Amino acid sequence: MKVSYQWLREYVDLADLSPEALADKLTSAGLAVDAVEPRNKGVSGVVVGEIVSARQHPDADRLRVCMVNVGTGEPLQIVCGASNANPGLRVPVALPGATLPGGVQIRRTTLRGVESNGMLCSAAEIGLETRLLPSAQATGLFVLPEETPIGEDIVKVLCLDDVVLDIDLTPNRSDCFSIRGLVHEVAAILRSGHSFPEHIEAPKGVGESPIAIDLATERCPRYEAQVLDGINQTSSPLWMQMRLMAMGIRTIDLVVDVTNYVMLEWGQPLHAFDADSIAQSQIVVRQAHDGEELVTLDGQKRTLTRDMIVISDPEKAIGLAGVMGGENSEITASTRRIALESARFDGSSVRRTGQRLGLRSEAQQRFEKGVDPAAISPALARATALLVELGGARPIGPSVAVHQERQAGDSRQVPFVPEQCREALGFAISNDEMEAIFHALGFGVHRQEDKWLVEVPSRRADVALTADLYEEIARLHGYDNIPSTVTVLPVTPGMRDRRQAMLAKARDLLVNMGMFEVRTYALTSPDALAPLSSPYRPIPLLLPMSDERRVLRTHLLPSLAEVAVHNLAHQVSGGAIFEIGKSYLTSELPLCAQPQEREVIAMLWFGETEGTLYEKARRYDFYDAKGVLENLLAALGADASYVRSAIPWLHPGRSADVVASGETIGVVGELHPETAKAFGIDRAIYAEIDVASLLATRESDMQAKALPKFPGSRRDIAIVVDRETLVGDLLRTVNKRLATSGLLQDLKAFDVYVGEGVPEGKKSVAITMFFQDAERTLTDDEIEQLVATAIDALHVNHNAQLRS
Amino acid sequence: MDMEALIVQLRRLQETALAKLTEISATRDLTNWRVQYLGKKSELNALSKQMGSLGQEERPLFGERVNEVRKAFEDAYLERQTALAAAEQALRLAQETIDITLPGRAIGRGAIHPISRVIQEIENIFLGMGFSIVDGPEIETDHYNFELLNLPKDHPARDMQDTFYLSDELLLRTHTSPMQVRTMERMQGDIPIKVIVPGRVYRRDEDDATHSHQFTQIEGLVVGEGIRMSDLKGTLESFAKALFGPEQRVRLRPSYFPFTEPSAEVDLLCVHCHGEGCRVCKGTGWIEILGAGMVHPRVLDMSGYDSTRYSGFAFGMGPERIAMLRYGISDIRLLYQNDLRFLAQFARA
């Protein structure tokens, strides 16, 4: 909301408070002032002058030589290029020595041999926003009204000594969408009085009003109208134009300008239309019919729906309430009588209508946020008075007002207990001080011992509850005066729950294993998910902003692949990344209930390792990923095994499901070449652990065992098996066979060899076993027996031959 | 033989042997020396055997001399041996010298994402104050995201254009505030409630240097009896000091959120200029970090806490903003681009 400092000053005594100081006070009270901008963009030395004569420049087709009276006796000769530099016009004249916006200095000069003593100015040249001016004034010389005093400083004429405060109003403070509201607010902040009138006496017309009003919808609580005739359709006075302009409103003509001016002043939107277009002189406010059509003032044919409110007569709609008038009731040069409307329409109806039709006017915004019922009549009276004064209009009869049986009162009473307020805010403030704040706000106070009733005027619709009164006290007493205290509460243990603690550990573990955490977008495109052939269809947004981000991901791999692609394209040769994030899964679309949000630790290794002195750069492979997983899962207390995976988007020979406690909790594998290609990367290894599954399979606390008292023995064997045989299966066989003995304490493969000395299609696997008994030293015979049993089991199950 | 002659021989032997010893510079030569001068067949032994030819009184005297020489030899030998060993070791060590400026064998170290880093740090501060952490769904219902937070349909503060809807009733949460209500419902009237809620949130904003359609928030909620607005200020001041240093101060400015009353914007002293006024704080000396307020009585009542008996405060902050201020990041998109050259700058533990 832009507000004119001078306009405020008209109603409230700002004494020597500068606009900047006022802005600080408003900001401290919760009306954040974003900018303080002088209207004068750097104009000085510009006065009003009248073009006495204009003749063609002897040497330039486009220039004219004007004689201009600036009230200093002899007219000045000024060369001008504007096409409207005609005798008789009063225009801004920049005298020699004048400054214009942008630091332009005006000097006495000679243009193609003709002396020029200054410059005649256009609107833009004196810093006016041409988009807010009628098109005729936007180009060429800025033409001032005939009665503008010659020689007067243009700064005074155009009220350029004003300053505009741009206030970022919070949605609850719709009352400050007007000079009236801001006057009350400033008066409350400064604890000074103000002279803004609560009531306006309108000039009374003779006889009866020629129109009748029928309120046929509940969504219009009150509707008032005044008919006027004899209006002189002229432009509004300069001071009004300049005030409108200061507050960002475009100047049109007297009638529109007056309605806008009163809207800015009172916060009450008004609408003027041709009174003679109303059939049977009967205004009907009703819901539109589905499919009803109306051509609005902008020339667009609108198709209406039943939830929109229309202003109509018994035959046709003539306007969309609160949004835009109809072309059929537009005021034109031939209009004899005008009807001025001041009403209150349901905010949400207006909002929906505006949204549906893509319209958002100043009036609409005020209806949406709610207008003050107490302003409806005075605003109409104010506009009537202005049209009478400035346009010579004559009111016909009094205004007509109708309202619903139940309508909002002019005030409401809110209970307030001073002691409770002090307790809620946590600072000391006297009862008298609180009462003074309420009075400064224009609230009435009925003190009944320690229980008060505070009478809040209808303009402050945001103050309805006791807590709202606390806020008024706090902000006008000053938030800066609130002390810092410590909450007195029972002691509570502050700790992460199991999942949070596990994820915090996982994050640290992965980082310490050289992985980089990433954070990616949950929104992606169906195309990005396509390579994964997921059984889940992604959940789409109703109103996406772009094609790239229009569905929720069903998997994290595409997000990580996107990171890999970005990095590989930016001189990063490879990396290991992870994200703790979610995918969003549903089996039914359209969505009816909150879907599953599956949390995973997703990891990706892409490109090459960083080469070092000790190990050359090489491509990441399956075992890099598996090593990290083994380390991670061991640290998190999950006993995992790896079985061949059937996931189609992974390499069939280089992928594994991660199984713990009989449940698949994740997967690790090289991307299928086709998948990798679809993502635009060469080769990458992906791994993923489901957080909920991991949490469910984690083993309970660690248990310590005493150290063995008797030495154990290690035995190594080398066997030859088929190339396809999985080492994991060999170990499982040995483990199973020797499990009952309880003596096998360690078992692992330490070498796998293919090549010379091993038959074609076979491989040699070296296995080490460690045997130990807690009670005694094992004999060689016993150990040989165990080894023989293992070899036998390997032979039976895997056709393994002992390698000599 | 007379003793005089033997003693002369002995002295000569001593001089010769010790002179030779000083010339020895290899262990092998030292061993030979030892065999030669201290071995069974040594001259010293041969001389000592001549003791028998001496008179009864002379024998002990001569024996003593021989022992003195032997002792001298042994001492000199040991000394020489030690010196040689030290020299040889010094040589070996010199030969073993490596370039200690070469890098160590890499134990790869990655980095926690700066946003996670900030979230963890903030979590730890509040954990220390006895808060617990709760997580909630990112796909919320209109009911929890808006209505139960005192934002009924058609509320002016609720703009369809700002929200990613998935259906009429489901949406991507626009803030972590729905967890205020979910937490109060879960606690079923128990007090005290002291929680923070970190999480991802979504808004229909075009991504640019200061906007991101996805970002994170940390919500805070305290509910109990007799909780005052000054407690909100005190809690946030403790937090600010813990996060940014003991000289921090907080400033509250009146503001508006539908689910708090009174509401406040919370400013901290500018982390760059500490209040002097600079480019970061646009000359004001303060930076806006949080939104906060007393839980709106309607929200308390809707969540099963009688607003005439209980009160509480809530606050919300943006880890992205804090990360950007703290690490001097000027474009929020850097946080979601995940360029490893950027992330590697956060490798410090």
Explain what you see:
The complex is a heterodimer of chains A (804) and B (349). With 804 residues, chain A is of the alpha+beta class. Chain A has six domains: 2-39 and 163-190, Phenylalanyl-tRNA Synthetase, Chain B, domain 1, CATH 3.30.56.10; 44-157, Beta Barrel (OB fold (Dihydrolipoamide Acetyltransferase, E2P)); 212-403, Phenylalanyl-tRNA Synthetase, Chain B, domain 3 (3-Layer(bba) Sandwich), CATH 3.50.40.10; 411-481, Phenylalanyl-tRNA Synthetase, Chain B, domain 1 (2-Layer Sandwich), CATH 3.30.56.10; 498-697, BirA Bifunctional Protein, domain 2 (2-Layer Sandwich); 713-802, 2-Layer Sandwich (Alpha-Beta Plaits), CATH 3.30.70. Chain A is elongated and about 130 Å long. Chain B folds into two domains: 3-96; 116-346, Bira Bifunctional Protein, Domain 2 (BirA Bifunctional Protein, domain 2), CATH 3.30.930. Chain B has twelve helices and nine strands. In chain B, strands 1-4-5-9-8-7-6 form a seven-stranded mixed sheet, sandwiched between helices. In chain B, α2 runs antiparallel to α4 (58-96). The longest helix of chain B is centred in the N-terminal third of the chain and has 39 residues, at 58-96. Chain B starts with a helix and ends in a 6-residue tail after the last helix. At the A-B interface, α8, α11, α13, α14 and β26 of A face α5, β1, β2, β4 and β5 of B.
